[in-house]
């Protein structure tokens, strides 16, 4: 693409500079309060959680995020743990209590819970844990990215609003890692998104329509 040609001519790499990382930290975590105070954890504790599946009775119940970090220290990269602490995660919601331990040990899971009950972190934490430990990061390249954007993981969102919400959370968890998070959705100029996708991406948050357009045109593979 013309953007990749320009990046190559100017030796612009996919990764962020130290100044950009520092600016990100100010913006991403500026509005986060202690213990994610807006969540009614005492009410959450009264919510029942039904679990089914082979050997589901062996899935441990998560009590605190600090307990998670200790129990799964071999699965959770230090950078991800620090980002979760920056986000103020301390007490898990009902859906997180069981889904995080199950997913971090490699089990396939399907969760159903109301809006605002912590599902985004429930799937992003295991995804990024695996990516950071095992996948080559686009942001670590020492030369400009070439070719179609080939994300390791794609999260499909039914709406633009949810896409942006997930993207914002993903950016926080990807902070100070070389993994690039990109977003694809309608109602934003195509050229703006192509400019970002030309640098590659590891985690893609997308709505179906615009994503299909980019796949069909070869922008995303």
CATH topology (level 3) name of the largest domain: Rossmann fold
- CA-to-CA gap between the ends? 14 Å
Q: Provide the residue-averaged pLDDT.
A: 89
CATH architecture descriptor name of the largest domain: 3-Layer(aba) Sandwich
**Number of helical stretches of at least 4 residues:** 10
Helical proportion? Answer: 40-55%
Largest sheet: 3 strands, parallel
Query: How large, in whole angstroms, is the Cα Rg?
Result: 18 Å
CATH class of the largest domain: Alpha Beta
Which homologous superfamily in CATH is the superfamily of the largest domain?
P-loop containing nucleotide triphosphate hydrolases
Give your account of this protein's structure.
The chain has two domains: 40-134, 3-Layer(aba) Sandwich (Rossmann fold), CATH 3.40.50.300; 138-220, P-loop containing nucleotide triphosphate hydrolases (Rossmann fold, 3-Layer(aba) Sandwich), CATH 3.40.50.300. The chain starts with a helix and ends with a helix. It has helices at 2-9, 18-28, 41-44, 65-71, 78-86, 94-104, 119-134, 160-174, 190-197, 208-217; strands at 153-156, 181-184, 203-206. The chain has a three-stranded parallel sheet. Strand 2, helix 9 and strand 3 form a beta-alpha-beta unit. It is mainly alpha-helical and 221 residues long. It is globular. Helix 7 packs across helix 8.
């Amino acid at each position: 693409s013309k953007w990749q040609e320009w990046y190559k001519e100017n030796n612009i790499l996919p990764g962020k500079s130290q100044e950009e990382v520092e600016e990100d930290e100010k913006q991403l975590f500026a509005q986060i309060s202690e213990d994610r105070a807006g969540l009614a954890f005492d009410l959450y504790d009264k919510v029942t959680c039904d679990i089914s599946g082979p050997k589901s009775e062996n899935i441990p119940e998560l009590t605190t995020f600090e307990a998670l970090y200790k129990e799964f220290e071999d699965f959770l990269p230090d950078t991800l743990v620090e980002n979760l602490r920056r986000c103020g995660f301390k007490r898990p919601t009902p859906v997180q209590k069981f889904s995080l331990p199950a997913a971090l040990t490699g089990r396939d899971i399907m969760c159903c819970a109301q809006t605002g009950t912590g599902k985004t972190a429930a799937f992003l934490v295991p995804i990024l844990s695996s990516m950071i430990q095992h996948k080559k990061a686009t942001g670590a390249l020492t030369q400009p990215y070439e070719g179609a954007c080939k994300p390791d993981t794609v999260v499909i969102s039914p709406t633009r609003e949810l896409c942006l919400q997930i993207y914002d959370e993903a950016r926080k968890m990807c902070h100070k890692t070389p993994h690039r998070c990109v977003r694809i959705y309608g109602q934003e100029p195509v050229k703006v998104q192509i400019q970002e996708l030309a640098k590659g991406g590891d985690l893609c948050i997308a709505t179906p329509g615009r994503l299909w357009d980019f796949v069909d045109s070869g922008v995303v593979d």
